[in-house]
């Protein structure tokens, strides 16, 4: 079965005997299909925009949380720098006392070594004295 257009723009199916007079305006069906297509496209684009808006909202919340977290870390790092500076100052102030303590430790080690040698020598003398008494 084929179709033909008349002068009014209507489509009418042709039969072999051209007696069928059922006619549908071609512009009406195209308009309806175009409206459905544009309506569907509009709905799709609106959904995409809403999804993009939701994604941007989530990214904004993540950025805000990151800013808060890194501000806290920055404060902690600054506090640590202040404490490190105070510790360095205290160390520099105590450096001379630390050197004196190190010197005293060396002296005590030397005295301990001398005391051990004197102890051994006194034991040797005692042994000799005991030998002479016998």
What does this structure look like?
The chain is mainly alpha-helical. The protein is built from one helix and three strands; from the N terminus they run E-E-E-H. The chain has a three-stranded antiparallel sheet with strand order 1-2-3. A hairpin with a 4-residue loop joins strand 1 and strand 2. The N terminus is likely disordered.
Provide the descriptors you would attach to this structure in a database record:
134 residues; mainly alpha; 3-stranded antiparallel sheet; disordered N terminus
Give a brief outline of the structure.
The chain has one helix at about 25-134, and strands at about 1-5, 10-15, 25. It contains one helix and three strands, in the order E-E-E-H.
Largest sheet: 3 strands, antiparallel
Order of helices and strands: EEEH
Alpha-beta content class: mainly alpha
Strand order of the largest sheet: 1-2-3
Strand fraction: 5-15%
Shape from CA axes? rod-shaped
First and last CA, distance: 150 Å
| Number of H- or I-type helical stretches | 1
Give the overall pLDDT as a whole number.
Answer: 86
The parts where pLDDT drops under 50 for at least 5 residues are: 1-5, 9-21
Structural topology:
Elements (H helix, E strand, L loop, with lengths): L1 E4 L4 E5 L9 E2 H108 L1
């Amino acid at each position: 079965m084929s179709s033909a257009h008349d002068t009014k723009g209507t489509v009418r199916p042709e039969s072999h005997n051209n007696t069928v007079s059922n006619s549908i305006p071609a512009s009406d069906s195209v308009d309806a299909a175009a409206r459905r297509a544009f309506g569907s496209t509009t709905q799709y684009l609106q959904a995409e925009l809403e999804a993009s808006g939701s994604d941007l909202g989530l990214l904004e919340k993540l950025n805000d949380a990151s800013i808060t977290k890194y501000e806290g870390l920055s404060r902690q790092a600054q506090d640590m720098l202040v404490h490190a500076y105070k510790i360095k100052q205290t160390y520099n102030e105590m450096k001379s006392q630390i050197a004196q303590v190190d010197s005293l430790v060396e002296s005590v080690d030397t005295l301990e070594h001398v005391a051990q040698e004197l102890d051994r020598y006194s034991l040797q003398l005692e042994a000799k004295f005991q030998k002479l008494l016998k």
